[in-house]
Amino acid sequence: MTDPRPPRAPRPGHASTGPDREPAPPLSVWATAQQDARTQRRGRYLPASTAHPAKMLPAIAAAAITRYTQPGDLVADPMCGIGTTLVEAIHLGRDAIGIEYEPRWARLAAAGAAHARAQGATGHADVVCGDARQLRPLLPSGTAGRAALVVTSPPYGRSVHGQVRAEPRAGGGGVEKYDNRYSDDPANLACHGLDDLLAGFTQILAGCTALLRPGGTVVVTARPWRQRGELVDLPGAILAAGATAGLIPAERCVALLAGLRGQQLIPRPSFFQLDNIRKARARGEPWHLIVHEDVLIFRTPIFPGGSPELKGPQRELKGAARRFSHGDARVAGELGAAA
């Protein structure tokens, strides 16, 4: 399970995975679904927030904030959606800033933070509506270089998102899917293909280096998903994107989307995840239910633009991230449960 001690970046030459392989970031497991998502949000979030198609699990945000910050620190989310990161941060006595492209979600994030304050949260949160690909001009005065932590998640895997309602029809109805789109704006990253999505997300991560203090932490959650039957290793691609953005890979963890009952995992899948798997099994394809999100942890350099002695290990870690993303996708999808 999770090591309670503060995590450390891997050292070159430590925990090698083979004679010709650079060390991969170490793994740990976050038990973040002991309550289902609806229970985690009940009363703590505004009812309107359920309309967002891909909300971060509150326990994942809270675990990252607790582990990588102290009370009074500044926490940021450049793609904050309905503001899960912000709400959890200010409930934990941190301050927070969120950037959100869509005005609808930005308004909900601000309202959610106000709701948290009314419930007794002691931190303060700001929400800025804008495109995080141009992050620097959006930052409120005095926030550049102050954040201890960025927690965020890219848009992905539309097939696993959304809600359903039964259609009443004689002889048995079907289901109607709704609240399954981030946006109808073609400029929104959520409307782009994978290559453009990754390019835009790399820009966002690079912009976060202006927001973070030296040695600050970036936590990105992502999960693999299937596209036309193929497993897309988004976590591996994000590791490479972070290295390209100038961040140092430090850890690769797993946040469970399933409860733990002794030695057994209790899945908490969406209707669409189960439906996709059942259809695949009916076709004879042995798909398994993905019951985790990868939690990718990066660090900013402690001495930006420092000496060659420091730059060398950073280059080695970036190379490890590139090789990991292209050559070792085994973690993505291996921690699963049969449907």
Describe the structure.
- The chain has an 8-stranded mixed sheet, sandwiched between helices. Strands 6-7 form a two-stranded antiparallel ribbon.
- Strand 6 (163-166) and strand 7 form a beta hairpin.
- The chain has helices at 37-41, 58-68, 84-91, 103-118, 194-211, 234-244, 271-282, 308-327, and strands at 29-30, 74-77, 95-100, 125-129, 147-152, 163-166, 175-178, 212-222, 225-227, 230-232, 248-256, 258-261, 264-267, 289-290, 292-299, 336-337.
- Helices cover 30% and strands 23% of the residues.
- With 339 residues, it is α/β, with parallel strands linked by helices.
- It starts with 28 loop residues before the first strand and ends with a strand.
